[in-house]
């Protein structure tokens, strides 16, 4: 099972390298179902793994000039504040038993996994849907919608803090539509934002009661980094437009599987 789990971590990194997002949505299910990590603890592990992997991936994009530092700061600052606050204050405050509906007890772990599965379904739709094609020669004017970008940063940071996913499927469209970035720059900038908010969000768990297995977390991250390097290399030969919908359908199936497993079985 561990062999399958580490292989899956490579695939997670591979998808980040190939399509610039979406891969982090697999980290928590891999940790929970293949390694038996507690769902709440797995969101903390995921923040570190996703943050470190995205940071490594953003370096190559930065060298190619595909990272907009101004946009990363405008979007990233509220996201960092939000994710850190959620990990530091909100997650520890959620009781182990949230409510009881008839014979069904809604636990903290169940809440996290159902919320995560819902996020997976939303992410899959974003990946499956075909982007609008620009007319040839058309360029996007760089107009910053500051208030909307700040609000989006707070929202994505809060979601990241709760479920441990990077939120690239939310960040990339926001950067394209609200900051006017071309797709390549949006992908590179998104990786830097994900890295910053995930790693700083992870520090919110350090002063809590959570026991962290650093050795396992670093080994898992190493496999994911191998995947992101491989994915970045393969982008020279494989267009991400073709891979994204296929991966989206896979995430869709996984989302329904988690909902079924947590609510029905």
Q: Average pLDDT value?
A: 81
Order of helices and strands: HHHHEEHHHHHH
Number of helices: 10
First-to-last CA distance: 21 Å
Biggest beta-sheet profile: 2 strands, antiparallel
Strand content: under 5%
Shape descriptor reads globular
Structural class: mainly alpha
What is the number of strand segments?
A: 2
**Order of strands in the sheet with the most strands?**
1-2
Number of domains: 1
* Residue share in helix: over 70%
Oligomer: single chain
Low-confidence stretches: 135-140
Radius of gyration: 18 Å
In short:
By secondary structure, this protein is mainly alpha-helical. It has 10 helices and 2 strands, in the order H-H-H-H-E-E-H-H-H-H-H-H.
Please give the structural blueprint.
Elements: H1 2-19, H2 27-34, H3 39-63, H4 69-93, E1 97-101, E2 104-107, H5 108-128, H6 146-163, H7 168-178, H8 183-203, H9 214-234, H10 240-263
Antiparallel strand pairs: 1-2
Helix pairs in contact: 1-2, 1-9, 2-3, 3-6, 3-8, 3-9, 4-6, 4-8, 5-10, 6-7, 7-8
């Amino acid at each position: 099972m561990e062999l399958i789990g580490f292989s899956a971590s490579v695939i997670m990194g591979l998808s980040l390298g190939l399509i610039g997002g979406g891969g982090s949505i697999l980290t928590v299910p891999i940790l929970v179902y293949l390694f038996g990590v507690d769902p709440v603890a797995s969101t903390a592990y995921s923040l570190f793994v996703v943050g470190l992997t995205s940071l490594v991936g953003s370096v190559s994009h930065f060298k190619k000039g595909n990272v907009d530092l101004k946009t990363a700061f405008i979007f990233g600052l509220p996201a960092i504040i939000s994710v850190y606050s959620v990990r530091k204050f909100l997650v520890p405050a959620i009781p182990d038993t949230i409510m009881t509906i008839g014979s069904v007890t809604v636990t903290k772990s169940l809440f996290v996994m159902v919320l995560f599965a819902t996020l997976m379904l939303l992410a899959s739709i974003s990946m499956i849907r075909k982007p609008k094609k620009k007319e040839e020669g058309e360029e996007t004017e760089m107009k910053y919608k500051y208030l909307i970008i700040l609000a989006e940063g707070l929202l994505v940071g809060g979601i990241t803090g709760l479920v441990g996913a990077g939120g690239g499927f939310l960040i990339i469209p926001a950067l394209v539509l609200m900051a006017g970035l071309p797709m390549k720059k949006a992908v590179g900038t998104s990786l830097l934002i994900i890295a910053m908010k995930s790693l700083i969000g992870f520090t919110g768990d350090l002063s809590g009661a959570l026991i962290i297995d650093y050795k396992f977390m670093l080994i898992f991250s190493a496999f994911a980094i191998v995947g992101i390097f491989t994915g970045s290399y393969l982008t020279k030969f494989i267009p991400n437009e073709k891979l994204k919908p296929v991966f989206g359908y896979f995430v869709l199936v996984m989302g329904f599987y988690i909902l079924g497993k947590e609510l029905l079985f």
